[in-house]
Please model this.
Amino acid sequence: MAALVLAGLAMAQDHVAFSTEDGVQISADLYGKGDRGVVLAHGGQFTKASWAKQAKALADEGFRVLAIDFRGYGQSRNGGQTKYRGNDYCLDVLAAVRYLHQTGVRSVSVVGASFGGAAAAEAAVKAKPGEIRRLVLLASSPIDEPQRIKGRKLFVVSREDLQADGSPRLPKVREQFERAPDPKELLILEGSAHAQQIFATDQGDRLMGEIVRFLTEP
Model:
């Protein structure tokens, strides 16, 4: 019975869909209420459902949370294409940000993981001033022009996280951090877990606490 109750608490409040500027329909799960919004952008091995626990925690802090399926993932349509350029995914994030603004949210932040982090960072480059208030990048893939990322930024990476070629990820994240404009923070966690996988480790509670702190402090 307890497990059923917990599962019910983690369920999305609503399921919504909206279109990107290039005509792709994006599916998303909506949690919570309020006039502060957060978009959750998953990594390449996940879908929007992977954010359920974190979305509920943010909703409990008073945020209206939108967890998206990127185009071609989960329940989002692929727009008739089988392959996209990396920059196309930022349009999914921008559409989610604008959906929240259009439905009464006053300020919107984005949490992006791995390739979803790169999409979030690119969205913050393309966004109009004020569209994205804060940005959390969990072991984000690098982008070409981090110096153009708008808003306040929190970069996060595990100290021993390795890239696909076996090289450490930290130097790449640090390089992106150093090139990004202020205000910004860099959080290095212990262990080797990558991006969203950190939540399943003994660093998970600390990470969630840091995200809540970063999104709520003045």
Notes: The domain at 14-216 is CATH 3.40.50.1820 (Rossmann fold).
